[in-house]
Amino acid sequence: MEPVIDQAFAAALYSDGDAGLDTGASLLAADPTADAELFRRGEEFVRRAWGRGWQPADVVRLVRRDLDETAAGLAAGLIVSGTARYERLSPRWQGQLDGLPAAPPRNRPDRFSYASAVLGLYRLLLQLPSIEPVGPPPGASPHGLHLPPAHDEPRMLTRIRALLAKAEATGFPEEAEALTTKAQELMARHSIDEALLAARTHSKEAPGACRIGVDAPYETAKAILLDAVAAANRCRAVWNSDLGFSTVVGFEPDLDAVELLYTSLLVQGTVAMAGAEAGQRAGGRKRTKTFRQSFLMAYAQRLGSRLASDTARVTAEAEAGTGSGAGPAGPGDPALLPVLAARDMAVTDTAERMFPETTTTRVRGATDLDGWTHGTAAADRARMGGNGPELRGGRGSR
Predict the structure, then answer these.
(1) For 107, left (φ over 0), alpha (ψ -120 to 50), or beta?
(2) I need a labelling partner for 76 at 20 to 30 A (CA). Which of 63, 285, 354, 394 fits?
(3) Cβ atoms within 10 Å, residue 101
(4) Closest CA to 132 of 243, 229, 42
């Protein structure tokens, strides 16, 4: 006789509709001896996802979006269990594992409900498409893929993280602006320091990649903001709107900077938008959706131009040995621009190999003048340049 778990899977995973899920869940609920095999097969479905290019945060993000928080916790439990056998994981994998939600108790609130949730999750896992890999899965050879070395967080990155956390927490726009300015200057100078050091030591480091979630609502504006942050930090971003993430390609220190800065600017923008919207509602206005969309579009586009300008300024200062950002270049380093150009070319080549076919997304125009005006003002308050307090980057920050 066919095992109960195979009967349940045939009913729930390889047929459409809720009726199949109910049939499969009923079979599993009536047979506690299938529990261990049910979990083992879930681990196998997760391993297959790794082979198709997915990583822990990608899986949980999609499960949460398409199912619910309970299913996200179930996926997290499978991921943690399935990766526990490996002695070493890449820093990005480990960081994603550390951020996973807790797994819910098994067979709660009852066996049928639990089995139904598990089968719904497995159905989704089986349908995951293949995506571009951004690093080797656990246990695989890193050959041909970028695997950053395991290390503690660089001191420079810790300082940047602290500055951005303060910018998010303060209630004073001027203070947030100054703190974010400091953080971006440190990022730009740190990137230059790393590029020059790699050139002088003939480092074989190649560009890598990471994925960053771009969640609804207003995902187009968020993708534009991420693209601007990536470009300003010498990276390339490619948005997959269907799966809800962008893949960012760049050298490891720059990828770290993009993740930190994008997350912080999104928080700052959301807080500013909520404040501006409250003022609009106090005046009797009710069209909040168009206001928010226009606000975030203006915020993203304004920051894009400011970020590009500030990166150019810091680079020019480092090349000339002027300002506070010369760092290891001393009185000016004529090799800087060729070094940066070579890295830009390497990033572009890697992105084009990973994504040989891309399309241009049509962006809906902003239709709310008040939202656009407030979004532009918020971007100015969070701007990345200007004459912020002097900060000195430095080599040896790792």
Answers:
(1) left
(2) 354
(3) 15
(4) 243
Q: Are 393 and 324 in contact (CB under 8 A)?
A: no
> What does the alpha-carbon distance between residue 332 and residue 136 come to, in Å, rounded to a whole number?
39
3-state DSSP: the chain helix, strand, coil percent, rounded to 5? 60, 5, 35
Reported as a single tens digit per residue, the pLDDT across 357-380 is 887 766 665 566 666 566 677 776
Nearest-CA neighbor of 130 among 255, 243, 214? Answer: 243
Contacts of 180 (CB under 8 A, 6+ apart): 163, 164, 167, 264, 265, 268, 382, 383, 384
- Judge whether 257 and 233 are in contact, CB under 8 Å: yes
> In this structure, are residues 277 and 288 in contact, taking their beta carbons and an 8 Å threshold?
yes
CA distance 99 to 141: 25
What the block records as the tokens of 65 is 């979006």
d(CA 94, CA 186): 25
Question: Which residue type occupies 105?
Answer: P
Q: What are 157-216's pLDDT values in tens digits? A: 788 878 888 888 877 767 777 777 777 778 878 788 888 888 888 888 899 999 999 998
CB 295 within 8 A of CB 372: yes
The two structure tokens encoding residue 198 = 């790699």
Q: Which two tokens stand for residue 135?
A: 């690093």
Angle at the Cα of 104 from the Cα atoms of 89 and 263, rounded to 5 degrees? 55
Between helices 252-282 and 288-320, what is the axis angle to 10°? 140
Match 């106090």 to its residue by tokens: 282
> What tokens appear for 357 in the block?
């076919």
Q: Supply the DSSP string of 207-266, one letter for each residue.
A: -EEEEEE-PSSSHHHHHHHHHHHHHHTT-EEEEETTTTEEEEEE-HHHHHHHHHHHHHHH
Cα(305)–Cα(301) distance, rounded to whole angstroms?
7
Q: What is the DSSP string of 282-301?
A: HTT---HHHHHHHHHHHHHH
Which segments of 84-172 does DSSP mark as H helices, in order? Answer: 91-98, 111-126, 155-169
Cα dihedral value 251, 386, 179, 57, nearest 10: -30
Cis, peptide link before residue 109, omega less than 30° from 0: yes
Cis amide prior to 56 (ω within 30 degrees): no
